[in-house]
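Researcher: Next entry: 2-isopropylmalate synthase (Ectocarpus siliculosus).
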Amino acid sequence: MTREEKLMVAKQLGKLGVDIIEAGFPIASQGDFEAVQEIATVVGQGGNPPIICGLARALKKDIDVCANAVAPARFPRIHTFIATSDIHMKHKLKKSREQVLEITREMVTHARSHVDDVEFSAEDALRSDYDFLSKVYSVAIEAGATTINVPDTVGYTTPKEFMGLMHHLRGTVRGIDKVTISVHGHDDLGMAVANFMSAIEGGARQVECTINGIGERAGNAALEEIVMALHVRKAYYNPSFDRPVLSETALTNIKTKEIVKSSKLVSSMTGMMVQANKAIVGANAFSHESGIHQDGVLKNKETYEIMDAELVGLHQDTSLVLGKHSGRHAFRSRLQETGYSLTDDELNRAFLRFKDLADKKKEITSLDLASIVNDEIRDVNIRRYELVGMQVAAGTTNKPTATVTLYDTDLEKEGCVAAIGTGPVDAAYKAIDDIVGTRSTKLLEYSVASVTAGIDALGEVTVRVQDELSKREYIGKAADTDVIHASAEAYLHAVNRLLSNRGQPDKAHPQKDVV
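Model: Predicted structure:
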């Protein structure tokens, strides 16, 4: 994500009520540093802001840069880590156990010299020797770590194993009763959330999760699933928190009605669509197709629904009393009711899109509104090329042709090209490539999804492209009632991002770069 996109997501995470936002890896690039710093400044202030955390390898330079990035936050945190499994120490770090212990002591101490709140992770903890792991965590706590994180870096463990490790650490790590135990995990075997729930029963009190479960490879543990499991099964988990079984006190600070909105925003910003049968936030999560289920739900919702859709912010009545005659004030008011807070420039762009959509659709829904708002407020500063016009011709007997006109904001001139392709979308993309000069762009993924039902529904198009020169990948997304137009806008969005990053140094990777 760009800095602007990260800030938007961070603001929503603040509304969602998360306790800690790990905002990025500041040493990775100047853009990442600025994004973390801005999140610390904007979201990390106020009456009850979340902790703003930055990630740093066990290197002084990483830690120093991270400290500067999170410094503006009211509650800054540095999260530093080093690998502890034999396979990582031998092949990646090329260091002995004794060296890893010494680095842990030195770097946690250094991080603590910058901030009072230091988190330490033992990378690949679940494949580490448990006794050595206990020594590493003991050293980290002695050096000043306030949170120790236990990562299942490769999604390898099982729920029973994770709980067993929690019990082992609680019984062998010196000073563990004075710190918070955290867990981090990936979903390579589809057990990330189950692993986390077992870890919570075993004593974990911080879980590092993501909206929609997004993340490297198969993703991370999904925030919405963990939160709702703790909510719906509160009576089951209460004893693990030393509470009475029937205690009604919430087990997290999450405002559950912000979950769906957060899910849609992250999906829009990342271009990663949510599968229809995804728990909690999927389009079918509260749908009933079976006749037996439908009959039961009509008689009593609790027969087949264990939670109310409105509890996670999914409103069944999504219609908005807005049309083509609605004014700017009414539009702003409705946006605020829906939870969106836009700047004047963002509002102006979104309002123009709304008026355009209102001319095409009889009924505007809150889902349509979310789509056009998210579409119009991303990546404003990197739109070098803008789509002025497009005309396509296709059919069973004609060669698909597209004529595209783009405006170059740098050169302040228009370019127009006609191209032939295997279909109208392919033709439009070839025309864009000809104008922009991005022939080294490879289309990796193209998908279309309907925002709402109906023949006049908005079509959301997501594309993923690769710059064959740098091998970097970029996401583009756009929505329109005309999917061909949306396809061109999405591709142009990705191409603009690609062009803005050409010539920039490669980002460091927190787990793949050698310490």
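Model: Note for the record: The mean pLDDT is 88.
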